[in-house]
Design a protein that fits this description.
With about 450 residues, this protein is of the alpha/beta class. The chain has 15 helices and 20 strands. It has two domains: about 250 residues, Aldehyde Dehydrogenase, Chain A, domain 1 (3-Layer(aba) Sandwich); about 190 residues, Aldehyde Dehydrogenase, Chain A, domain 2 (3-Layer(aba) Sandwich). β6, α6 and β7 form a beta-alpha-beta unit.
Amino acid sequence: MTIATINPFNGETLQIFTPLTSEEINQKLALAVSTFQDYRLTSLEFRGERLLKTAEILEVNREKYAKLMTIEMGKPIKQAVAEINKCAVVCRFYAENAQKFLTPKYIDTDASESFVTYQPLGAILAVMPWNFPFWQVFRFLSPALMAGNVGLLKHASNVPQCALAIESVLLSAGFPEGVFQTLLIESPQVEKVLRDSRVKAVTLTGSELAGKSVASIAGQELKKSVLELGGSDPFIVLDDANIEEATEVAVTARMLNNGQTCIAAKRFILHNSIADEFEKLLVEKYHNLILGDPLEPNTDIGPLATPNILKDITHQVSKTIEMGGKVLIGGQTIENKGNFYPPTILTNIPVNSPGMIEEFFGPVALLFRVNNLQEAIELANSTIFGLGASIWTKNEENIKIAVRDIEVGALFINGLVKSDPRLPFGGTKSSGYGRELSMEGMHEFVNIKTVWQK
């Protein structure tokens, strides 16, 4: 697999990188370990000042980093700018809250004094995806570095310049060399790094297949792992919902990042009594979306990140239609340079078709109809995934049932599913395990040590 910047808008290869050799990897791991011995002893004030400086650098250079993201993976530039801003938010959040999250917890026992303390583990390997090339990294590194750990990043092979830029930002902010290092390595090299005794834990955001591989290796080595994997999020609209608001949010929920988002709404589960109205409004809004150069500020949908992603989504849609699915809009490949796929809506989804059982990672909405809440929840839970879900209803009893019965890591009621530094984020079932963000995310990569003194 080539490590390269290939512009998905025009297919132009801008830069190719040579993967690190075994000796170069060894040097970086050695630096991580030696740096950790000093860094773990630094104060929270020291770490926090540098993380606040990181936020400042990101904001001052937001246009530059946003453009880099867009060129490498096709994200519309206005969304790329928003991503940089969100990275600054998570940096400030942990700089300001780490003291509270890491304060020892004193507990009354038969000891003279007993408490729980939170101590860093060491070098944490992060295997990160291309779809949010800055955010996914910063949501890991902000709590990890504030806890006193050091980080190693194996980023997706199509966003190497983003990976190097993140390391440069942290060095410019005053973090010591070795606190955070980018490893420009290919996927087959990950196993050796993860098995190295100097790496203490791993976090991965990616596909179910990649998650199983990393979890298996980490399990064999008895190392902590956190996985955030795929999703096929349900977007349930009941008969008492605000349909105009729901369809407006539905467009963003499906089309953000050109539809390439784990927590995107992918399956729209509609109560029969409002389904016709919802479909009509959604088609109208899809017609108004602008496809084009992602560097243009008015573009809503840019190219998919790679030719393989375009190939996969094309096959999934074609197969679903072939089996009996109906196209309301889109569904045809675009003869153009770049990895473009049009905003598409499919309905009458056949049983056992890709639309019923697979995750669609692109700008395709799958519409289903149900008669009641129970049917909606059964359909929502019918997938192997359990990342996020949203439900649109004003009925408090419906809400209570949804909270109790929908099998996901995050349920949003009358709102867009999104990550928020103040709330833990993660999934269940084949969407992974563990949590990122909030206090829970910080505690994933610390030694929760019990201390008992007579």
